[in-house]
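assembly run, all chains below
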Amino acid sequence: MKKTKKNRIFIIIIMTLFILSMAVYSSVPGSPLNFISTPFSFITDPGVQFIAGVFKNVEGYFSLITETDEIRKANIELENEVAHLRSRINELEEKGRRWEELKHALSIKETFADYQIVGARVLTREIGDWFDLFRINVGKRDKIAIDDQTSYAVVDPNMNLVGRIYSTDYISSKVMPIINEGSIVSGKVNVPGGAMVRIRGELLLKDQNLCRVDNFSDDALIQVGDEIVTSGLGGLYPPGIPVGVIVDIINEGQKVEHSAVLRVYTNYKTLNDVFIFKGSFTE
Amino acid sequence: MNNVIIRKVLVYAVYIILISIIQFNLSNYLTVWGVKPNIFIIFTVLVAFMYGFSDGVTIGISCGLIMDLYSGRFLGVGVLICLYLSVVSSFLLKKHFKKSLPLAIFHIIVATILYHGILYSLSLLVSWKENILIEYAIWVVTARLGPSLFINTLLFVILLIIMKFISPYKKNIEILDTEN
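ok done. output:
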């Protein structure tokens, strides 16, 4: 009995040491340990994509029922002709939205001609704090590989900054969102000669899709409503990618430590498709 | 004996696959007051509580590894958390070998508090800032721990009932591990 207990304690200690060394090694960008997920990805990703597709269809079916019900109610109140026109307007609005998305996707290519844009689909979402990276369906197979010098910026279909590639395996990659508390981005106010700022994720803010903006000079002209874009400093994020809009300015205590709160444009909850900026920025 | 092992592996595999699908693709629907439940943690604790050290540790490592591989920042944090929670859970099982519902609920409450304690200590280390500690502690307790306790307890009881009917062991088979 006592021997079993001792054995178990010994096993736990050995495992803890092994796992800790694994954690340290895997924290190095481009660590080969991140490739452990490749066989899992090969097995699970087709299933995950299939199931996600099924649920999307089911969701679409239920929303269709709701919309049909709404139209039926409208039909009772309005003439048939009006109902027909409304339906037509809805259809055109949907087409308009699609056209806008395509237009934005095309403008990415125009604005950042030096970069290759790789489209990807979100496979799995975050599961809570700390486990808050999401996976996309491109990896080393698609020539997306990172190391301690290289990573790639990720944007949404409207060309707003989502985050960066955090790690890759052969067929998938993990993306760290900019609202993550480990994320730091160099930005600037989107006006000619705009102030340089630092954008960083904060645990207490990320639920509301907010980030902290700081490291700007006392005389910097930053106001609520200002748009912040990436500055291009550091070489990871190309300059000029919209990040979000300032929603609050904070002056803390006597030390006059300025900071601001930024509402990020990207909606992570509804994000299904992303684009990866492949290449590097040269000034 | 082989049949027992095959059944065990198959049942656990099916549970883990289903939990992965729900956790990674459908957990938005289970969000309570902005908090997503961590079903991997609930399952690990439940298995360790019901079936003892060996099962708990094996499932804990598997679930932790999936969490780390799919959503974690480093490989190992999820594995360690699940490993320790399974050890604590199997320890409680050994000390109080009486699988009553109140004990089970007490058990998931302890596990949830431990989980949050470890996780938010790590997050605090990453984003350390002066004078944030009290505000942070209040936020963790009110905005995270409270909703988590509610949803975790609820899902724990549901999973407990499911596992009573779809168990990795046949009813007449003794779980040797728990007798140690």
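Residues 133-165 of chain B form the longest helix (33 residues).

The radius of gyration of chain B is 17 Å.

not gonna interpret more than that til we talk
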